[in-house]
């Protein structure tokens, strides 16, 4: 079984954490050849059998035509049976086409790969897990981030530049910029140890009979900033803007967790002012240790799905935690 780890490097030529995790998973199967594509690659100490590279300014941008051509060139030189890549927008767009060109097959959103080459992935919005294996080769496997231990090996690896012709037709499309939902700051941090989930309760009338949306926004942002946590949201909260209600301006649908949102994988989760089934049951089902703050002691989903429920006012709790974080760092806050 010839195993190829395939990735697009970061702008500085390094490998992202998700790429290192895919490499770790590939190395668990057998000796690995690495195939790296980008504007520049720095991989001479990756500690694998061999590194095949396609580099050059044409390969720096995420573009299907050149990404697929480069990946195809590497796969043909490697002659791999199994190609393991990190799951991201670039690999998800380019590698199915490469599998087709090579007469192979591809599976995306894979969550584990055993040494006996059985892959697992979730179906029906993360409610059923399937275990699959395939006889067709090459088999492309795109591994979700957060599912495997990152590769820590090092050592000199021979590098071989693979030729890849860039015809004018391949360069008809140019990436000129990125359009993203308007958010005031970056609040989604997939690598953060903690996921903070904000629910619609933050915008509801509080005990004085008034909503306190501006204060809620500041408390949440202060917490996210001090704890370097990632910010998730319930659907109700991100949907409020469509209903003309006061909203938290830094939230977009990209923050939404749940059945129709994302299912991130953080070590810990803290849900605040959140009642919904979908965020609790589906949204953070892969979160390791889960706590919730809710005024309602009978909030069924918080009770059913969190390890610890604090029956308390989230405004007061988060204000106090922020004070502790400011005063003594995260250890003081976690002790409290
Ligand atoms: C097909 C379908 C798909 C869906 N997909 C998703 C999805 O992907 N993600 C998702 O989130 N939802 C989804 N929903 C919606 C979901 O069912 C819920 O309606 C939604 O999650 C509720 O949001 P919430 O818990 O933030 O708000 P609410 O239900 O309004 O809960 C607010 C909570 O805040 C608490 N609270 C208020 N003030 C305070 C305070 N000061 N301190 C502490 N607690 C306080 C209240 O006690 C209450 O429990 C979906 C629904 C359907 C039908």
Mean pLDDT: 91
Oligomer state equals single chain
How many DSSP helices?
Answer: 8
Ligands bound to this protein structure? flavin-adenine dinucleotide
Number of strands: 14
Search tags:
nine-stranded mixed β-sheet; five-stranded parallel β-sheet; 336 residues; binds flavin-adenine dinucleotide; Rossmann fold; 29% helix
Can you describe this structure?
This protein is α/β, with parallel strands linked by helices and 336 residues long. It folds into two domains: 169 residues, Rossmann fold, CATH 3.40.50.620; 142 residues, 3-Layer(aba) Sandwich (Rossmann fold). Strand 12, helix 6 and strand 13 form a beta-alpha-beta unit. Helix 2 crosses helix 3 and helix 4 packs parallel to helix 8. The chain starts with a strand and ends with a helix. The structure holds flavin-adenine dinucleotide. The site of flavin-adenine dinucleotide has 30 residues, from helix 5, helix 6, strand 13 and helix 8. Flavin-adenine dinucleotide binds next to helix 5, helix 6, strand 13 and helix 8.
In short:
By secondary structure, the protein is α/β, with parallel strands linked by helices. The protein is built from 8 helices and 14 strands. The site of flavin-adenine dinucleotide has 30 residues, from helix 5, helix 6, strand 13 and helix 8.
Mind sketching the topology for me?
Layout: E1 3-8, H1 17-29, E2 32-38, E3 50-55, H2 64-78, E4 82-86, H3 89-101, E5 105-113, E6 119-123, E7 128-132, E8 139-143, E9 159-161, E10 194-198, H4 213-227, E11 230-233, H5 235-239, E12 268-272, H6 277-283, E13 289-294, H7 300-305, E14 308-311, H8 314-335
Helix pairs in contact: 2-3, 4-8
The structure holds flavin-adenine dinucleotide (FAD).
Flavin-adenine dinucleotide binds at residues 199-201, 204, 206, 234-237, 256, 258-261, 273-279, 283, 293-296, 299, 313-315.
């Amino acid at each position: 079984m010839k195993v190829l780890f395939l990735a697009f490097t970061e702008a500085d030529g390094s490998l992202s954490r998700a790429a290192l995790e895919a490499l770790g998973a590939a190395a668990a199967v057998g000796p690995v050849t690495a195939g790296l594509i980008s504007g520049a690659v720095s991989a001479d100490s990756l500690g694998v059998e061999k590194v095949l590279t396609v580099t050059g300014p044409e390969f720096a941008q995420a573009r299907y035509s050149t990404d697929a051509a480069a990946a195809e060139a590497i796969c043909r030189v490697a002659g791999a049976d199994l190609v393991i890549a990190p799951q991201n927008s670039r690999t998800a767009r380019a590698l199915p086409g490469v599998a087709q060109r090579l007469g192979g097959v591809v599976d995306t959103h894979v969550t584990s790969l055993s040494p006996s080459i059985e892959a697992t992935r979730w179906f029906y919005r993360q409610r059923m897990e399937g275990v699959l294996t395939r006889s067709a080769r090459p088999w492309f496997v795109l591994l979700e981030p957060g599912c495997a231990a990152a590769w820590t090996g090092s050592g000199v690896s021979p590098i071989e530049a693979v030729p890849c012709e860039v015809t004018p037709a391949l360069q008809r499309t140019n990436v000129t910029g990125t359009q993203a939902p308007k958010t005031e700051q970056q609040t989604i941090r997939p690598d953060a140890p903690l996921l903070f989930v904000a629910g619609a309760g933050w915008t509801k009338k509080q005990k004085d009979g008034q909503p306190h949306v501006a204060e809620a926004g500041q408390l949440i942002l202060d917490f996210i900033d001090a704890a370097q946590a990632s910010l998730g949201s319930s659907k109700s909260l991100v949907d409020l803007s469509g209903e003309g209600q006061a909203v938290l301006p830094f939230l977009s649908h990209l923050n939404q967790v749940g059945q129709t949102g994302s299912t991130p994988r953080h070590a810990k989760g803290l849900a605040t002012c959140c009642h919904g089934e979908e965020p609790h049951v589906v949204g953070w089902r892969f979160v390791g240790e889960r706590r919730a703050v809710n005024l309602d002691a009978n909030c069924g989903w918080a009770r059913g799905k969190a390890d610890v429920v604090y029956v308390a006012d989230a405004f007061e709790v988060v204000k106090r935690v922020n004070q502790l974080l400011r005063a003594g760092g995260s250890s003081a806050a976690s002790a409290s």
